[in-house]
Amino acid sequence: MAMSAVGADLAVAACLFHGFSDGSRLAIVRHLALGEHRVVELTEHLGLAQSTVSKHLACLRDCGLVESRPQGRASMFSLSHPEATMDLLAAAERLLGLTGDAVALCPNYGLTVTP
After folding, report:
1. Could you report the per-residue pLDDT of 26-61, keeping only the tens digit for each?
2. Are 39 and 77 in contact (CB under 8 A)?
3. Which residues of 39-61 are buried (b: 16+ CB within 10 A; e: fewer)?
4. Model-wide pTM > 0.85
5. What is the pLDDT of residues 72-114, one digit of tens each?
6. How far apart are the first and last CA of the chain?
7. CA 65, CA 36: separation in Å to the nearest integer?
8. In the chain, which residue ranges form alpha helices assigned H by DSSP?
């Protein structure tokens, strides 16, 4: 069965949001909003393991959200579309402000609370 054009558009949008669905990826994106960084700088600033940062940068690059350029033996990473990315994050913050705790309490995707 073929996917409708609307279904295909929604699937692509879901893929975009999946790129932002991890807290570490969001932290990397927010840090790259400050400017270009090497993996070693991101690990130091964010307190994440080098393998974690590299894995998430690869995901973000595959999604077209991050790009890199060589600099000596390292690579410099930056946001591919910084203005649009920051607009999306600002809209998410506005929506979170409007929904309050509802998103965190969502039984399907909310934060898990252990007794």
Report:
1. 999 999 999 999 999 999 999 999 999 999 999 999
2. yes
3. beebbeebebeeebbeebbebbe
4. no
5. 999 999 999 999 999 999 999 999 899 887 888 888 878 765 5
6. 44
7. 13
8. 5-19, 23-32, 39-46, 50-62, 82-99, 102-105
d(CA 80, CA 65) in angstroms, rounded, equals 5
What type of residue sits at position 86?
A: M
What count of residues does the chain have? 115
Cα pseudo-dihedral 84, 85, 88, 89, rounded to 10: -150
Exposure on the CB side of residue 113, measured as CA atoms within 13 A: 6
Pair of tokens at residue 14: 């879901």
Measured in degrees and rounded to the nearest 5, phi and psi for residue 69 equal: -140, 145
- Could you tell me if 67 and 61 are in contact, meaning their C-beta atoms sit under 8 angstroms apart? yes
Cα–Cα distance for residue pair 78/66, rounded to 1 Å? 6
Q: What is the C-alpha separation between 25 and 30, in angstroms, rounded?
A: 9
Three-state secondary structure call for residue 67: strand
